[in-house]
Amino acid sequence: MDCVMQADGRFIPLAGGSPYNMARAACLRGASVRYLNPLSTDMFGRALAAQLLADGVYLDTPNSRAPTSLAMVQIEDGHPSYSFYRQGVADRDYTVDALAHILRTHGATHGPGILNVGSLFLMPPENQKVLALVQAAQALGWTISMDINMRPQVARDLPAYVAGVKTLMAQTDWLKASDEDLQVLGWAAPALADAPALVQALRSQCAPQASHIALTFGAQGAYLQVGERGMAMAAPRVTVVDTVGAGDTFWGNCVADWAMHPQAEVQSTLDLAMHAAAINCGRSGCQPPTLQETLALSAAAAEA
Q1: How many CB atoms lie within 10 A of CB 221?
Q2: What percent of the chain has pLDDT over 70?
Q3: What distance in Å separates the CA atoms of residue 61 and residue 95, rounded to the nearest whole number?
Q4: What is the edge-to-edge ordering of all strands in the sheet holding 229-234?
């Protein structure tokens, strides 16, 4: 749960968390989405579950009696900073075998899908469980998607965190990284103009078959590479309330588009993902738009 600080010092709880936001965004884009992490039976957990269900996301995993993890969010000039409370929380109350069983059962009925991982789950020691789950999913034929979304300010051992991320990158088919992620991974001041070269460098660190890579650069815009086709796009102009969940919304829309339309044109995927993220930036906290809202903004921008 994102607890967002207001101007008067109060904290307002808003449904959030990177994989949670991404699941909502992908489902609102039109994809069939299942959220695998347990949710708490506490008041926050029930609210989070209710929002997922209202958006159409399936919940496969039994609830946990552990409390909901919290992110305390402060906004300055539209940009969030975070403090996290994640010890003994519900979303870490899972076993690799239990989640692998869900993937196996789903794959047997519907065929393998896309498993998305990222954010704080890439941080030691959780990254070892995630690596085991990713390897189990790969053995079952699943595509691995990863949003790096690093949080270096809360890492006790940053070199171990970076090493863990790079180990998981080597298993990744589809990858998203922000300019801030790239800086933590060792690139100095990456910019949108550098994107093609950055993609090639990242591909060398991903799975051999890595085919879909997205790089985001905040207000500069974003770059999308699918196979050998790459494209950059400037960020749409929008009145920013805050940028909480903008990257999650962007990646959720990309992954959903590829899941539903494997041959989608790069320009179309990038355009809709950028406008979805822009809508989210005009709202407080992460509130991904529906496909209809995104199409309307994209059409209005094209006519302007």
Answers
A1: 17
A2: 100
A3: 11
A4: 114-118, 143-147, 174-178, 212-216, 221-226, 229-234
| Domains of the chain listed by start with CATH number | 2-303 (3.40.1190.20)
Instruction: Give the single-character DSSP code of 64.
Output: B
DSSP state at residue 216: E
Distances (CA, A) of 215 to 13, 190, 220: 29, 10, 11
DSSP state of 173: S
Reduce the DSSP state of residue 24 to 3 states and report it: helix
Average confidence (pLDDT) over 47-71: 94
Distance between CA atoms of residues 253 and 270, nearest Å: 9
**Residue written as token pair 């690799």:** 96
Contacts of 122 (CB under 8 A, 6+ apart): 130, 146, 148, 150, 161, 164, 165, 168
DSSP string, 26-53: HHHHT---EE-S--BSSHHHHHHHHHHH
Position with higher pLDDT, 116 vs 73: 116
Q: Where are the alpha helices (DSSP H) in the chain?
A: 18-29, 43-55, 96-110, 126-139, 158-169, 179-184, 195-203, 246-260, 266-281, 291-303
Neighbours of 300 (CB within 10 A): 11
Compute the distance between CA of residue 169 and CA of residue 60 in angstroms, rounded to an integer.
26
Contact by Cβ (8 Å): 229, 191: no
CB 14 within 8 A of CB 2: yes
Q: Is the pLDDT of residue 28 over 90?
A: yes
Whether 160 shows a pLDDT value over 90: the answer reads yes
79-85 vs 70-76, strand pairing mode: antiparallel
Tokens of 18: 């990177």
Sign of CA dihedral 198, 246, 149, 106: negative
The alpha carbons of the chain give a radius of gyration, in whole angstroms, of 18
